[in-house]
Write the structure tokens for this entry.
Amino acid sequence: MNFSAIPRERLPELIRRSPKAELHIHIEGSLEPEMIFALATKNQVRLNYASVEALRQACAFTDLQSFLDLYYAGASVLRDDDDFYAMAMAYFRRAAADGVVRAELFFDPQTHTERGVPIRSVILGLVRACDEARRDLGISAGLIMCFLRHLSEESALQTLHDALPLRQHLLGVGLDSSERGNPPEKFARVFEACRALGLHCVAHAGEEGPPAYIESALDVLKVERVDHGVRCLEDAALVQRLSREQVPLTVCPLSNIKLCVFASMAKHNLATLLRAGLCVTVNSDDPAYFGGYVLRNYTALFDALPELGPRDAWQLARNSLQASFAEPAEKEAWLRQLDAVFASA
Ligand code: ADE
Ligand code: ZN
């Protein structure tokens, strides 16, 4: 492939046409303010915001916790399986427009079961959307059930127990919410149980937490991918390991700026991570709150980092497909389509 012959101006179009996997999207973080207000009215949930505009204005965060407070308030409007279905379908339609062919959705059951919503409604609503996304939009999708790390391991074990009758609908499990002070070790037993069930394991680590959390996610939880992981650069030995083992990092550029992990996109370390040989992927995290879906994350990066070029765009899309938990035959087909996009450029 002759990447150097491709003009930079063509990148937005080529990235959009490239088949891509989105591996780090909290589906509750795709709830746009308009849908939050519509569901609040439908379900008679009182919000602390007077209007869609006031809710948008509240999206000025100082750190992860300041975001999570709003995110959990937004998710409180979801009550029945139709709500979960509608939320996920709205996401899938946007993802299809961005060229996403594979989406592995995080969801937070404890946020809902704590309010009396049955886990069955959450999962079956999302499954209905995943089936429809495949049938009508050509998106292959899977569900990753996340445990909230600010809650106890007992609560996570109970959640796993409650989800067991629906095991067949789960691709894997993850770990999210407030990172600092809640190290991966806290969830060693529940992840061991998940591995025994044959579930894929991922965890947020090294977003706000130290590089040691990335190491314990790998060594204690035995995760196959690290969500965020951007703070790995503070530990040279860890970077070498991540490169040697090709552990995928699901990086979320707009999220990192909104949550003040980096001061600006020009200061984002994604290009450094790529040059260190890491398997970096680009994702949206909570697109309704952070200013854009996956394509915006790519274009914001390429606009801000002049050292990134066409080969990097191809590499990032390729990494996302390879790092997904999709079937090998599906992956092969997408990888061929990706090469065709760049070969014809
Ligand atoms: N839940 C939703 N988005 C999250 C993030 N960026 N980090 C941790 N937990 C989250
Ligand atoms: Zn996340």
